[in-house]
Amino acid sequence: MSDTTPKITIYSTTWCAFCHTEAQWLDHLGIPYVKKDIEQDPEAYEELMKKADGNYQGVPVTDVAGTMVLGFDRPKLLEAIKANNLNPSDSKD
Hints:
Layout: E1 8-12, H1 17-29, E2 34-37, H2 42-51, E3 61-64, E4 67-70, H3 74-83
């Protein structure tokens, strides 16, 4: 995996307002991510089920370099982003 490949995956649905808000927030911070729709993409759903040990509780579920965060939880997301050095050099909280 190259350094340009996003290490954040948002598992979402088209109707999830928090999923869209989280994506906009990451865009604002300049942090790259991949967004996968678990309703439209069966492979994304299966991928999420494996990562979450079948314990699916809702969306968004965000994989930050292996740290799973349920919901749009800014403090937890920022903590995982910083712990994995994924924040841009001039990141603002």
